[in-house]
Amino acid sequence: MGGVEGGEGAAGGEGRGAKSLSEVLLEVGRSAENAFYTFMGLIAPIH
User: Tell me, what DSSP letter sits at residue 12?
Assistant: First the structure.
């Protein structure tokens, strides 16, 4: 589905070695949050 698209660039092999664990966790959390709100927007649109 569309939720994963946003995180692909950041999760790619580009800067994997340079990122700290907390940065990776922040990115994963951010993309998961975006996917969650996108999903909620689809099933329960705010009028």
Answer: S
